[in-house]
Design goal:
The complex is a heterodimer of chains A (426) and B (370). Chain A has 426 residues and is of the alpha/beta class. Chain A has two domains: 88 residues, Rossmann fold (3-Layer(aba) Sandwich), CATH 3.40.50; 255 residues, Rossmann fold, CATH 3.40.50. Chain B has a domain of 229 residues. Chain B is built from 15 helices and two strands. Chain B is globular and about 80 Å long. The chains are: A alpha/beta (426), B mainly alpha (370).
């Protein structure tokens, strides 16, 4: 009896082993394709090295190093990685000239990573996360010959170092545009009798009540109201940049609260998936979410970092001056509208967006036009924003002039942090 | 036939027997063999999955640790941090008190340093200011370890669960404090504390950022070695660890030893937190300790609680970790690849201890027996 049992057990083991290996075989074909590209990369490397040896004087020993908070599994970091790879290809840089350091936390490890990149011969070091900034400044002070650039940071103009730069994009214009698409969708729903005009409530899942998020949802809302005057919006925060469960839950809560259209500023698939389940149209950020919500994903906006990376490299190579605060948008391709879903969007959306976009580029339309919103029932005539970060958060700069709020002009990172009428925060 | 079976004791095919004596050189030969074997398996995995030359990959690992002076200093500093937390958990584990709360104890120590650095800057004379920061970190670590120790001694609660839960409480507390300290507002990061004034930053020795941490931990290592091996306390800890009843029988106050040892454990974690926050990072977030509180347990056990050997085991772990991230960077591989290699190497290193402690007997054929 025992023998029979042991034979069965052995057979089961062998079978499962075969299955596992069969599984490996499948993955192997995948990795084999990787091997091919990798090997190719290796060849390129060898080729470049040879070139370098041939003409040592004019040698292209330029290098750029990137510091990422997470790896490609985070949509936020993937956006930077893809842009860096695209820029590398567009500029014809070799594998050796671009160094990625992933999973660098917002601690002294960021300084170590930056110093390490300098040791590796980098001419530019770029970091992608807000909390990296102080450590980048520390490195910038120590290595004055290297250019340090930092996304989403706020301190370049106050530190005023000759080699430390902030960058962002006028994403608020992109948000406004996708807001227009959302407003058109609301109009369509009103016309079709799905909702009444006063039911046009938008739900918004935000990460933190941080200026970047507030500026984002306010411009989105203003875009929607630009075409659908009866629109209102309700915002809820998850207090995390990436929390799939919380984002999904928050989205569901907003839908239950009567929101008929959703958008979000948090980095996971939580909200788009919740919207797909509930059949509520959703406007996304940073990536095309049609894969997650084929019937509900409406449109997205994102910052495309490729133009900035290319600009940075060209400036350093040609010895040109770099903007302390780089903030460009639609015209330069830094702000991108993507994933317009014709199955979901209202008719004529694409044409309308082109029209509004042209107005932005021409400078005839401003997102935060003070005629289009009120605060506490009154028009905003002036506003002192905390542009120069200090510990007491003292408002220091008059940002309203010529009838609009000048977002991202006094520094690249957003500073619009006003709660306007029409948006309820819960 | 039946009689035959009755007369013979059935012997299983494979029998595992505890080994009590193995010469030190033999056991080290087993360990070295295990590492070599692990490296061979890793080489195979590297070739099969990536097609890279494994020698290049190993070279990258070494260069990632010792490629230049900065990397070398940084390696030793990382070693110091891990070793410091390992030293902290060692007396508790030697006493068979399963303290898996070093992560939280270190974090709370760091939180206390950060709080003092923020709130007391420019309010106290410099020496007092430093003393307060140091005392607060040590005290905070101690409190965090004394709470589970007290409940263990008084009510015999399960210390494994208790210390583990305390980690999450510490993390939540840090998140909570970040809300008050965040700079700029609502950004959820504290930023570098006193970046302009450097107030409360531990001093640097001879302009070297790493040396102070390394020296402090080196001193602690020697002290811990002496404490465990030559002091009465150290003896009591081993007796309690071997058998609580024996300890009671020979008149050791077990409760007192538990509480005293955990206080020491927590104090050392507090020092680790101090070195991390006031010495190096100058900021605090929930990932400040970065899992070292758990890795430390492995360091301590692998070294069989000998602080001097722990320098070696923590070196192995730091080496693997730093080497792994260098591989990821240089070969453009995902961190998962280097995690796999680290996993394989650790598997062999830990696995070989089995063969050092146990002997495997295979049943001999019956003819031979007769």
């Amino acid at each position: 009896m025992k023998k029979v049992l042991s034979i069965i057990l052995v057979l089961a083991l062998v079978l499962s082993a075969t299955l596992i290996f069969a599984g490996c075989e499948n993955t192997k074909t995948e990795s084999e394709t990787n091997v091919e590209t990798d090997v190719k990369g290796g060849d390129d490397k060898g080729g470049e090295e040879n070139n370098g040896e041939e003409n040592t004087e004019a040698a292209d020993d330029f290098k750029i190093g990137f510091i990422f908070l997470h790896d490609e599994n985070s949509t936020y970091d993937k956006n930077f990685m893809d842009a860096a790879t695209a820029a590398k290809e567009a500029l014809g840089l070799s594998d050796d000239q671009v160094i990625f350091k992933a999973n660098i936390p917002e601690t002294a490890e960021c300084y170590e990573a930056a110093a390490d990149l300098v040791d590796a011969g980098c001419d530019i070091v770029f970091a992608d996360s807000f909390g990296h900034e102080d450590f980048m400044i520390q490195a910038a002070e120590e290595f004055p010959d290297v250019v340090f650039a930092h996304a989403t940071g706020t301190k370049a103009h106050t530190e005023d170092l000759p080699n430390f730069y902030n960058a962002f994009a006028s994403i608020y214009e992109g948000r406004f545009l996708v807001g227009v698409a959302a407003g058109l969708k609301l109009n369509e729903m009103i016309e079709n009798g799905v909702i009444t005009a006063d039911q046009a409530k938008i739900g918004y899942v935000g990460a933190y009540p941080y200026a970047e998020v507030k500026s984002g949802y306010t411009s989105f809302f203003l875009g929607a109201r630009y075409v659908c005057p009866s629109a209102t919006m309700e915002v809820k925060f998850t207090n995390s940049w990436f929390d799939i469960a919380a984002e999904k839950e928050t989205a569901n809560a907003l839908i239950a609260d009567g929101c008929v259209l959703m958008s979000q500023h948090a980095d996971s698939e939580g909200a788009p998936k919740a919207c797909e389940e509930a059949g509520v149209p959703d406007v996304s950020y940073n990536l095309d979410t049609r894969e997650w919500g084929p019937n509900t994903a409406l449109i997205s906006s994102k910052i495309n970092w490729q133009p900035y990376f290319e600009h940075l490299v060209n400036c350093v190579k040609e010895g040109k001056e770099i903007e302390q605060d780089y903030c460009y948008g639609l015209a330069e391709g830094s702000v991108e509208i993507l994933g317009l879903n014709d199955d979901v969007a209202a008719a004529g959306t694409a044409e309308k967006l082109e029209e509004v976009k042209a107005q932005f580029i021409a400078g005839t339309l401003h997102v935060f036009d003070t005629d289009t919103f009120t605060v506490g029932g009154e028009k905003l005539e002036e506003y002192m924003a905390d542009v120069d970060s200090d510990e007491a958060f003292t408002p220091d700069t008059q940002v309203i002039s010529d009838g609009y709020f000048h977002e991202s002009e006094f520094r690249s990172a957003p500073y619009f942090d006003i709660d306007i009428d029409g948006i309820t925060i819960k | 036939m039946n009689d035959n079976v009755k007369n013979q004791v059935h012997e299983p095919l494979i029998r595992v027997r505890k080994r009590y004596t193995m010469r030190w050189y033999k056991s080290w030969a087993v360990r070295v063999a295990a590492v070599i074997l692990a490296l061979l398996i890793c080489a195979l995995v590297i070739v099969l999955l990536t097609g890279y030359n494994p020698i290049d990959v190993y070279k990258a690992m070494i260069e990632g640790n010792f490629g230049n002076a900065r990397k070398m200093w940084n390696t030793f500093q990382e070693l110091a941090f891990l070793l410091c937390i390992s030293l902290a958990v060692t007396p508790a584990f030697k006493m068979r008190f399963w303290n898996i709360g070093a992560e939280g104890q270190t974090l709370i120590g760091g939180l206390a340093s950060a709080a003092c650095m923020i709130y007391l800057a420019d309010k106290l004379p410099l020496p007092v200011y430093y003393l307060v920061i140091i005392a607060a970190s040590i005290l905070a670590g101690m409190i965090w370890s004394l709470i589970p120790a007290f409940f263990k001694a008084k009510f015999n609660t399960n210390e494994t669960l208790f210390t583990l839960m305390m980690n999450y409480v510490a993390m939540q507390l840090v998140s909570f404090c970040i809300v008050y300290w965040e700079n700029p507002k609502d950004s959820n990061t504290v930023g570098v504390i006193n970046r302009k004034t450097h107030a409360g930053w531990l001093p640097t020795i001879a302009d070297n950022k790493y040396l102070l941490n390394i020296l402090i931990v080196a001193a602690l290592t020697v002290a811990m070695f002496v404490y465990l091996k030559y002091s009465k306390h150290g003896y009591e800890i081993s007796v309690v660890g071997e058998s609580e009843n024996t300890a009671k029988y020979i008149g050791i106050n077990v409760k007192k030893v538990i509480i005293r040892t955990m206080a020491l454990s927590g104090a050392l974690c507090g020092i680790a937190g101090l070195l991390l926050v006031a010495g190096t990072d100058h900021t605090i977030n929930t990932t400040t300790v970065g899992g070292m509180g758990f890795t430390a347990i492995m360091v301590s056990w692998l070294a069989k609680f000998n602080p001097i050997v722990m320098t070696l085991t923590s070196f192995i772990l730091v080496f693997l970790d730093r080497g792994a991230s260098e591989i990821a960077t240089r070969f453009k591989l995902n961190e998962s690849m280097s995690d796999m290699l680290t996993g394989i190497i650790l598997f062999f290193i830990i696995g070989c201890e089995f063969f050092i402690n146990y002997k495997i007997n295979v049943r001999k054929s019956r003819k031979e027996e007769k």
